[in-house]
Amino acid sequence: MKSVSVGFCLFVTLGFILGPGCSKEPTDGELLKSATLHQRNDELDDAVSDFQMLIQKYPKSDKVPEALFAIGAIYLNGKKEYVKAESVYTKLAMDFPEHPTAQGASYQRARIFIEHLHKPDSAIAAYELFLQRYPNSLPASSAKAELADLKNQPTTTK
Prior knowledge:
The structure is a single chain. About 75% of the residues lie in helices and about 0% in strands. The protein is mainly alpha-helical. It has a domain of about 90 residues: Tetratricopeptide repeat domain (Serine Threonine Protein Phosphatase 5, Tetratricopeptide repeat), CATH 1.25.40.
């Protein structure tokens, strides 16, 4: 009985996402909603898949930066795949520098370099770029302090 109800729920969910007629492509909004639901349910691979599908099918959508930020967060916090997280945040920060999520992505890049990848020179460059682009942002004072600390470390190339 349980497998029937799970199957029915899956059928209903797919019907909702696809809408009437199974040949209809999901919209960017439907993909974002589905990916966010997967993320909330800790179904990280499915979430990444839906976010990536949104980016691939709707590259000009205003939802792409949000999808990139979410993928970066999944790789950083959920999957602990720091190189992938940094790469996604770099794409977001470079391709959508004016989007509100780009500021957070740019700052997270520097944090990933220092905390997880142990690349102080890359962290310095990332902090400097962050401060150049977002000097009046909320995390700017933290970035300045972290940058100063990095530059004062004897193992870092100056």
